[in-house]
Automatic annotation (TrEMBL):
Coiled coil: none annotated. Belongs to the glycosyltransferase 2 family. CDD domains: CESA_like (cd06423). The chain crosses the membrane at residues 26-47, 59-84, 339-361, 373-396, 417-437. Keywords: Glycosyltransferase, Membrane, Transferase, Transmembrane, Transmembrane helix. One of its GO terms (molecular function) is glycosyltransferase activity. Pfam families: Glyco_tranf_2_3 (PF13641). This is Glycosyl transferase.
């Protein structure tokens, strides 16, 4: 996958099948998931009995629920919902509303020129203003921005924010926004030619209480090394599937700072971006609780750089896990307005439980299985695999349609896919547990 830009974007839906109301999808999804989990429990009773003989029955139920029953329920709900996902049509074809892009930078001299040049190539017919906030960079980021502003046709304003922290930079930029719509974009993120047009069309085609739209962020540096190649599939399949699910239920839980569109008044009404390690997570949850709904637009595609070293990957993903806990502490799931948002944010309450059981029981169980002890990892654990493959296949087919619509190509990356399917969770769960522990013990925040 790569930011290969072509001129034309076909309009319209991917499907013309009969529309099913959201509340019915929500109900049917849970019925299907409950049925799947019930069957799983019946099939696994011998497994529970065998494991209980070694670790006691209550602990056996605790372990198996965390590594099989609950993940199976959530995956079944997801796959059923995605099978019936139909993105509503755009009601606006060529929006002309002016937009402002906030671009917070810290030592981005090597990336900022390319990012700005891609903004200048947008096919959006409205006025685009860019506010670059230099967050006390120690390189020549500011000089590069000034040089770019002189040679490309783009309305660029450069300001300086000395106080470290992305939230401080964004809030400083927010004070200068005079348009009703504002976009946040990371300095290492490249926009597809029609990204702004599509994300604005989605917001303007939505009900008035939709206060933000998250764009689809994919991997730009997917040829860097194996770490980047694996993350390519995580963004393309894993993160995109979650975004689609949440967007279908009008409750995208993270309008990510890398590329999202907001109603300026809505962001200002909740005080802007908070002082949090997951500032975009907390901001989104506050918007959902106070303003209404947050959508996701799969055709608004951007390409971002992902970590290429293991230590940076661990820091990023543990930061995301910590940000989720921050959001739960600040905005409780039961404080959300919509039943869909209550469920989706509430699901995050059991994520630490699943990550803990996977890290401290499933992974040691895998080691034991190599020595002939199939107490935890054995035949019964394979029940989850067909559903996992169905989720990935369902999303792959959908993403293929998205790429065809945008005239993009899916790169071949079989090794990355193999590692993603077989090993990725064995990395992600321990990293997430590390993030939970950081928040529990309030360790020093590390952004880089």
């Amino acid at each position: 996958m790569h930011p290969q830009i072509r001129p034309e974007i076909p309009q319209g839906n991917f499907s013309t099948r009969r529309y099913i109301p959201v509340i019915r999808k929500f109900s049917y999804g849970h019925i299907f998931a409950l049925t799947w989990m019930t069957i799983s429990i019946i099939i696994s009773l011998p497994w529970v009995s065998d494991l209980g003989a070694h670790v006691t029955l209550p602990l056996a139920v605790f372990i198996i629920a965390g590594i099989a029953y609950i993940p199976g329920y959530l995956n079944a709900f997801m796959v059923f919902s995605l099978l019936f996902d139909r993105q509503p049509p755009f009601k606006v074809s060529n929006p002309v509303e002016p937009v402002t892009i906030l671009l917070a930078c810290y030592n981005e001299a090597k990336n900022i020129e390319t990012t700005l040049s891609y903004i200048a190539k947008q096919d959006y017919q409205g006025n685009i203003k860019v506010i670059v906030i230099d967050n006390n960079s120690t390189d020549n980021t500011g000089d590069v921005v000034k040089a770019v502003a002189e040679k490309i046709d783009l309305d660029i304003t450069l300001i300086h924010e000395a106080t470290p922290g992305k939230n401080n930079a964004l809030n400083t930029g927010l004070k200068m926004v005079s348009t009703e719509l504002v976009i946040t974009l990371d300095a290492d993120t490249l926009l597809h030619k029609s990204a702004i047009n599509n994300i604005v069309r989605r917001l303007l085609s939505s009900p008035a209480d939709v206060c933000a739209v998250a764009g689809a962020v994919l991997v730009r540096n997917s040829r860097g090394n194996l770490i980047a190649r694996v993350q390519e599939w995580d963004y393309f399949l894993g993160i995109a599937s979650i975004k689609r699910l949440q967007g279908m239920f009008q409750s995208t839980l993270v309008a990510q700072g890398a590329f999202s569109l907001y109603r300026t008044a809505a962001v200002r009404s909740i005080g802007g971006w908070p002082d949090a390690i997951g500032e975009d997570i907390v901001l989104t949850w506050r918007l959902l609780a106070n303003q209404g709904r947050v959508y996701f637009e799969p055709l608004a595609v951007a390409f971002t750089d992902v970590p290429e070293t293991f230590i940076h990957f661990i820091r990023q993903r543990s930061r995301w896990a910590r940000g989720m806990i921050e959001a739960i502490k600040i905005i409780k799931p039961w404080q959300q307005r919509l039943i869909y948002t209550k469920y989706l944010t509430g699901s995050n309450l059991i994520m630490p439980y699943m990550d803990v059981t996977y890290t401290f029981f499933w992974m040691p169980g895998l080691v034991l299985a190599f020595f002939g002890y199939y107490w935890i990892v054995g035949l019964y654990t394979l029940v989850v695999l067909p559903l996992t493959m169905l989720v990935n296949y369902t999303l792959y087919r959908y993403q293929k349609k998205v790429f065809r619509t945008l005239d993009l190509k899916i790169r071949r990356n079989f090794l990355g896919f193999l590692v993603y399917v077989l090993c990725y969770q064995m990395i992600m769960s321990p990293v997430s547990v590390w993030g939970y522990l950081q928040e529990l013990f309030q360790t020093k925040r590390i952004w880089k």
